């Protein structure tokens, strides 16, 4: 009995000592973790307490404790309302197009940059393609208006000189999704290459040399060595992208939305803003946002499960 007692007494002490030793060896990594941890605690986890108002008839004057409990009434109204299917269609339409065209763009660009052998030229190109990421969406929307407006936009001037008529790209609903996806590709593709280029930097160069000896060309090197090397990174990024399938980006959509294209441009993010902030329907908009978050969680868990079933590592 004494031996068993001694084991139970000394084991936590040993584990504690090992943790302190490990912490001292990596203390700067833990210190660097503090700002990110504080950000998520203050702006992500603490605000989750406000989810309760989705089940109340919340009033700012009575507060959370004094507001009437209504259960899932707001969810029923949201799902049975005329707006739900329109929002789902518009949001999924933009997200699927982003998955088809925007998601592969950084991968393709990374593969092309990886083929550049001149380091100075490669760094110069990287610098130029990173710049759009640091331009605000307000500027991007202004540039889009300058290029595509029906009065004096350069694109419409070219079309008018060729065909004799103009196209209202900014007003017609059928062009809205293409403009949004095009903006995303222009703004974020270059910056998105950082992750994939970091993964490519870890590829063993001896693999390329051995393949070249066997007569492999650049295309085979890319297909059989480069792509398999970053496959895990691609799958992780895809899982995260699928998890955000109902997040189309509030600011970008809001700036491009107008009364003419509202049938296509109204998505969950803008709808929640207008219902919650403009119309002061706090509980209803919270229920809408909670639905969006739950769908995102299910998509992440499901895509991660599928990745593991396929033999990949996933995100956890």
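Q: What amino acid sequence fits the structure above?
A:
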């Amino acid at each position: 009995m004494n031996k068993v007692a001694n084991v139970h007494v000394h084991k936590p002490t040993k584990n504690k000592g090992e943790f302190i030793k490990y912490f001292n060896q990596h203390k700067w990594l833990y210190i660097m973790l503090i700002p990110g941890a504080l950000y998520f605690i203050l702006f992500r986890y603490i605000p989750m307490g406000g989810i309760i108002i989705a089940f109340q008839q919340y009033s700012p004057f009575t507060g959370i404790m004094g507001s009437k409990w209504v259960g899932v009434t707001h969810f029923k109204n949201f799902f049975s309302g005329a707006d739900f299917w329109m929002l789902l269609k518009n949001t999924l339409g933009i997200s699927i197009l982003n998955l088809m065209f925007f998601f592969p763009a950084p991968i393709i660009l990374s593969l092309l940059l990886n083929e550049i052998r001149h380091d100075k030229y490669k760094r110069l190109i990287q610098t130029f393609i990173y710049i759009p990421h640091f331009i605000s969406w307000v500027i991007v929307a202004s540039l889009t208006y300058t290029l595509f407006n029906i009065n004096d936009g350069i694109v419409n001037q070219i079309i008018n000189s060729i065909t004799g008529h103009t196209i209202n790209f900014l007003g017609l609903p059928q062009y809205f999704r293409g403009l949004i996806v095009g903006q995303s590709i222009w703004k974020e593709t270059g910056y998105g290459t950082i992750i994939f280029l970091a993964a490519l930097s870890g590829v063993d160069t001896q693999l390329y040399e051995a393949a070249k000896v066997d007569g492999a060309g650049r295309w085979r090197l890319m297909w059989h060595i480069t792509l398999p090397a970053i496959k895990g990174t691609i799958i992780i990024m895809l899982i995260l992208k699928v998890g955000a399938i109902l997040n189309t980006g509030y600011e970008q959509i809001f700036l491009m939305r107008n009364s003419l294209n509202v049938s296509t441009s109204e998505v969950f993010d803008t709808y929640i803003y207008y219902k919650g902030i403009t119309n002061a329907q706090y509980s209803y908009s919270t229920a809408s946002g909670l639905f969006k978050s739950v769908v995102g969680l299910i998509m992440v868990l499901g895509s991660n499960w599928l990745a593991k079933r396929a033999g990949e590592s996933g995100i956890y």
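Q: And what stands out in the fold?
A: Residues 1-38 form one domain.
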